[in-house]
Amino acid sequence: MDRKNFIKKTILGTTATLAGVSSLNASKKETKKSTYDKLMEQVGFNHLPNKEIKGMKSVLHKADSRGLANHGWLQSRHSFSFANYHNPERMHFGVLRVLNDDIVAPGRGFGKHPHDNMEIISIPLEGDLEHKDSMDNTAVIRQGDVQVMSAGTGIFHSEFNRHKDQAVKFLQIWMFPKQRNVQPRYDQITLKNQHLKNQFHQILSPNADDAGVWVHQNAWFHLGNLEEGFNDNYTVKTKGNGVYAFIIEGQVKIAGQELEARDGFGVWDTEEISIEAHCGNAKVLLMDVPMSLA
Fold this sequence. Notes:
The protein is mainly beta. It has a single domain (32-290), classed as Jelly Rolls (Sandwich), CATH 2.60.120.10. Helix content is 6%, strand content 45%. It is built from two helices and 22 strands. The strands form four sheets. Strands 1-20-17-22-15-13-14 form a seven-stranded mixed β-sheet, with no helix packed on it. It has a seven-stranded antiparallel β-sheet with strand order 2-3-4-11-6-9-12, with no helix packed on it. A hairpin with a 3-residue loop joins strand 2 (67-70) and strand 3 (74-78). The protein is globular, with a radius of gyration of 19 Å.
């Protein structure tokens, strides 16, 4: 390999770091790989076997097994490999590539940085997060809201905790799109009927006219606030999809697996899963996603 190509590969290799740790230098963006290409290079579809469940396939990610990044102003737990956390057996769940559980310090945030060809969903859990992007959107998302960006051909955005005395907690979720190079778009909604108990409310789908925000992917997200004694089944939306459940709060049993706060549990090769709540005020996010990247 000649010196020029060696230097180029070295520069490209250094770009796989946490987006937003500092403001990006726009003059160097030509040397950086796209969000899509960097993450596609890392996919492997390796899952730790879960021998407790028979029949359907499943993978269990306990809360304390997640990756940890502590940057002072940002504490992030990674359910899948991200930035400096790399686990070849935890790369993605189907098209679900990133699930970060973030805490942003008062007055701090992610500086202006680029994304492309990724469906990016943010779900605030506490506090207010201010968003600005290259499509001239300026907005604040807070608990009870859902935000989506289709990065498509490319966008820049920033996210900051707008309060000086309160941390922001939110889930940051990335999915591979079913179509590349779409026109970038932004949307956010405030969830209706979010206070209702013992129901799973659809917060995301592939359909612009359906409940929740929509994405360029055959994915459906549902959020449920469950009381002790809740017992019901969830039907997978379409053949070839699996369900990754993230337990935001409380204790539940899904498909026979006992789960606690911040555990993640994925199941596939099944048409439905059973869900039971074992304590009051359990909060569960179900992500129904294609298992194939094709």
